[in-house]
Queue: 3 jobs
Job 1
Amino acid sequence: MKFVLEVDTTEMRGEGEAATELGRVLRYWGGNLRHYGLQPGDGSPVYDSKYREIGNWRITESS
């Protein structure tokens, strides 16, 4: 299986905002993964600190 994380940083224009939000995404969603079976098809939208949907993570079959 493959873990895929996609985050769009296009709207993150403030100084250091992209790095701050990416760090938050990795900490929050990394800690939250224990609630999932991590089987192909699992996934969830990813939100920034302003509750904007900025991407998603998903489990896929290995290619």
Note: The chain has a mean pLDDT of 90.
Job 2
Amino acid sequence: MKRFESLLWKLVIIQFIFLIIAQWLILYTPLHLYLGKVYEYEGVSKQEKTKTIETTVDH
């Protein structure tokens, strides 16, 4: 069990290091210009309201 716990802690630390590296790449490098376009494709960046139609279904 102790061997499994040490392996799990190593994986957690490695995951945390990769998280910090990925955050740094996105925030402080020109890479964010290419990743920022993903929001435009998904339609998240625009804050305009769309016209909605409510429908009811009677059974």
Note: The chain has a mean pLDDT of 79.
Job 3
Amino acid sequence: MKGFVFQGPGRSAWQDVQDPDVQDPTDAVVRVDTVTICGTDLHVLKGDVPEVRPGTVLGHEAVGEVVEIGADVRAVQPGERVLISCISACGRCRFCREGMYGQCLGGGGWLLGRHIDGTQAEYVRVPFADTSLHPLPASVTDREAVLLADILPTGYEVGVLAGRVAPGDTVAVVGAGPVGLAAIATSRLFAPERVVAVDVAPTRLETARKLGADVVCDAREEPEQLVADLTGDLGADVVIEAVGLPETFELCTRMVRPGGRIANVGVHGRPATLHLEELWARNITVTTGLVDTRSTPTLLKMAATGRLPTGQLITHLFPLERIEEAYEVFAHPAETGAIKVVLGGPHREVVPASEVYEG
């Protein structure tokens, strides 16, 4: 089979790789029908995630069909259509029992595309299949479901829930990429007074407005002053960092009110300065986190009833074999307008890459 392989910082290729098989009795092998590219994959390609070794197939989000299961798998069967979670969970360790699957001590956590071969291939081995695969209802399409593998749980759990968004809050989301947009959309579930989206790309700001942002702001036009003006100089109750750069994190610390919360979602490849000389007396709470995906069943229920605007996040569709082109499109959103790029496998009819999904 073929897969998209990390060959070292700045180098990758769609190439022949070994077919996966069941290695442990809790494994499943899934034929990949729909997959997507994550901003974290771009960080891997830059060398920001050093534990990813050259030769690893990238990707941790997919929808597909189970083709083989280990002897101990009970929750899914061959032929079943499933969502592959970005987090693998043993389900038995202390952290899994607390719902902190991303911190799994039993050999799970973020494995796919990091410690083992990932989903950007024709087939993938999924460890801990009973807790890491989600059977899909017929009412949820592959394209809708694949966005629930990572970005929607991440924006919701690490951004909205960790930031404790509440009715009447002013919420500022710095970074209107896929995860930031997911945070904007799911923050509306808690009836904030206003949501402010900050980015540099006009297309992403326009999408943010469609997904529920009340105010949008170019990051180069003093967003902290805008938030101050909107809140009577108090600042935002919750600021969600969804970029992963030192300057955007420091911007968040200038936008938050005393007693407010900063929820860091972005993947940081460089140190960011925490100005405690300015923040120590302001009662600020800063949270970080790797998604646990404990909210995936809830989000699937909402997707099945049309309560999640997943279609508006998809801007480009490619056949899986054109993944190198898809990466180029996704990596340059200012030029391409890309938000979420979705790729279809050889077993599904796909829309040509030139056709933009209208939702």
Note: The CA atoms of residues 36 and 240 lie 23 Å apart.
